[in-house]
Amino acid sequence: MKSTHHSHRAGKPRAVRSVAAVVAASAMLLTGCGSGESGPPTLTWYINPDDGGQDVLAQQCSDASGGKYKIQTSLLPRDASSQREQLARRLAAGDTSMDIMSLDPPFVPELAEPGFLAKPPADVASATTKDTLEGPLQGATWNGELVAVPFWANTQLLWYRESAAKAAGLDMSKPVTWDQVIKAAKSQDKYLGVQGVRGEAMSV
């Protein structure tokens, strides 16, 4: 998942709005707009080193703007903890080069609470949350406000023992909640296990 941090400078909200509208499908953090240089602004998108197609998307959006702006990418470290550290330090220092960020879902609350993430414009929020699953949408929300734009997420699989679910009265042919699964496991004296890495795992 990936919203905006508040730039403390007045500055070019139209550029941010138009970029957000074009890059509507991204898990990004849209931030205060680029530099004060003359000519079309260049926006920097801090991206994760994965196969999310962010470089291609940045180029497509730049081309689609018709020369109104350019999006360049800057690669974040490979592991999630180092990504978080770099982003948090830059934001806390007031780094104005941070126009767009890709952000893992567990870090949304941490960066939203001190006010680093701004509410996306209404048109962007409307376009990017249409037909979005409830889980990713909740992960992009803080204190009841959308602060990030859901882009893409890992696929998670739940494996379960049919006999234990049946004995607990859990109907797995229908949607179930984590509360139901936890209650069922306790009633059958079973354990739940989550496979994941630090910085993600159960929070994702």
From TrEMBL:
Gene3D superfamilies hit by this protein: Periplasmic binding protein-like II (3.40.190.10)
Has keyword Amino-acid biosynthesis? no
Q: A Pfam family name for this chain?
A: SBP_bac_1
Q: Which UniProt keywords apply?
A: Signal, Transport
Does Transit peptide count among this protein's keywords? no
Query: What is stated as this protein's family in its record?
Result: Belongs to the bacterial solute-binding protein 1 family.
Its name, as the record gives it, is Extracellular solute-binding protein
